[in-house]
Design a protein that fits this description.
By secondary structure, this protein is an alpha/beta fold. It has eleven helices and 14 strands. Helix 3 packs across helix 4, helix 5 runs parallel beside helix 6 and helix 9 runs antiparallel to helix 10.
Length: about 300
Amino acid sequence: MPILEAHDLRKSYGSLCALDSVGFQVADGEMFGLLGPNGAGKTTLLSIVAGLLIPDHGQVRILDQEFSPRKRELKSVIGIVPQDLAIYGELTARENLRFFGELYGVHGQALNERVAQVLAIIGLEDHANLRAGTFSGGMKRRLNLGAALIHRPRLLLLDEPTTGVDPQSRNHIFEEVRQLSAAGMTIIYTSHYMEEVEALCTRIGIIDHGRLIACDTLPNLLRRLPGVIRFSVSELPPSLVQKIQRLPNVHLRENSGPPWEIECEDMKKSLLQFVALLQEEKIELTGLETKEPNLERVFLHLTGRALRD
């Protein structure tokens, strides 16, 4: 059973359509990545899933129950880490966690124990009694994550959790998220860093202009683009062109060279076959470059722009 289902979600702000018929499911324990350029609708979508916004049309279901902001028992299933920091600078790290824990109904000794656990998870044990306003950007981001974990949510929504932090803090947050996922927490993860999504997520949704234009596993998304072998040779006789064109699942781009380009589905296999043809034809290879499909290329192919546009 999926922990989250979104059906035909639509949301507009005046004449601006922020979400247009978005639907997807997230399985219990899954790490689901959500990518999109700025203004694509990611934050609006997460806000609806968290119960912070009401859609104009459509439905969200949590644990197979219709979700609304009034259903407190379902809201307690969710933890959200917003893109903008949601912590209090005048409070210490410990006080921030206690505050958010009490908001979620955690009290007494259970709260004391959970605060200690979360401080360890986010690596702020040695800074527990310091005011959050004195923290570095990375430490604030980690405390922001801790506030979302204090009530043991089953579904964690992360909206750009590593934006604007130094590489060390980014790696720390990345490892914390990896460990939460390994422990079985369901996570929806949005990021500007393709490598994070590639490394963490089992499935990825790509949203653009308010529409979910792709949603699949990383291997299936990568299959949407061919690999490219770019090569230079001493000569390219018609006999070699014919043999290349007869290779299975291979396409020699016409008028592409020099250097010439071959598109292929299986880079390793096609490269070995191509080199064998050169040896057979006794043609010297003077230059070679390969370009494997990656998530950034797929994203650019589907949206027509880079992630940060």
